[in-house]
Amino acid sequence: MRSFDGKGGQVTIFIIVAIMIVSVLLVFFLWAQPTYFSEGVGIKGFEGCVEDALESGISELEGKAGFIEADFTYSYNGEELTYLCYTNNFYETCVVQVPFLKNVFDENLEALIRDDVDACYDASLASLREEGYDVDSGAVDYNVEIEPGAVRLEIDAPVSVGSQSFARFSVEANAPVYDMVMIATSILQFETKYGDSDVSSMMLYYPDYYIEKIKRGEGTTIYVLEHKTFGNKFKFASRSLVFPAGYDI
Asked: Is residue 48 part of a domain?
């Protein structure tokens, strides 16, 4: 019978020890992770909190065409809908009031959620310190970017938890804002050129959306874009190519 003496036995023991170490590490990271990796504090807690703030901000701005407080609105069913295209004159097509709608949504969303993101960051660090971790932190900065199918928030939040250091986080919220902004932009192009838009044709091109067009008596048109699956609604108003009362086209 062969013994485990010699090089062969040493290799066998080394392999067994290596397997045990890997097993312990897997159990540690997959089951008994340090609290600053999970349980609502530290990184995951911070990102989850930010994601909630991001989704709430998106929902609020969609109904206002990307504005926190728009200067020029139309009152309809208790809501103030932003005029994205407007003319006060008869026989004229409207003038776009917001040339770069996507940029406006980006900037206003970033401003809207800033306090909430800062609160998420402070609460996460406070929770870690309460649990006895040595935490060092720096200034928080971030940038919002609307992308197809999602809104992404890039966060620069330097923080050290014990021996672990983190500097940059990326949080995404699934939302059809990008498509809605593109659809709204297309509608505005028709409004400025023809004074109206063919939403039936647009719904064939964008089958995931309902596009409602509501004509009001004084010449304003209300548009409501709704995603069929998610239910997100993007609302705005336009006033273009209006004719005086009694005019027969």
From this structure: yes
Residue 82 and residue 64 in contact, taking contact as beta carbons nearer than 8 Å: yes
Query: Tokens 């009001």 correspond to what residue?
Result: 216
Residues 28 and 16 in one domain: yes
**3 state DSSP class of 131:** coil
Q: What is the pLDDT of residue 130?
A: 84
Mean pLDDT of residues grouped by 10 in the chain (249 residues)?
A: 52 59 43 34 68 94 93 94 96 94 94 92 84 77 91 82 71 93 96 96 96 95 96 96 77
Report the alpha-carbon distance of residue 224 to residue 215 in Å, rounded: 12
Q: Among the three residues 155, 174, 193, which one is the final residue of a domain in this structure? A: 174
In the chain, DSSP assigns E strands to 73-76, 79-86, 95-96, 135-137, 141-147, 150-161, 164-174, 209-215, 220-227, 233-239
Question: Are both 118 and 49 inside the same structural domain?
Answer: yes
Same domain assignment for residues 111 and 232: no
Q: Do 50 and 116 have their domain in common?
A: yes
The confidence score (pLDDT) of residue 133 equals: 76
Other CB atoms within 10 Å distance of the CB of residue 95: 12
Angle at 203 between CA 176 and CA 63, to 5 degrees: 45
Alpha-carbon gap, residue 86 to 240, rounded angstroms:
6
CA 87, 182, 177, 147 dihedral sign is negative
The token pair at 227 is 């995603």
Q: Which of 56, 77, 76, 78 is nearest to 68 (CA)?
A: 56
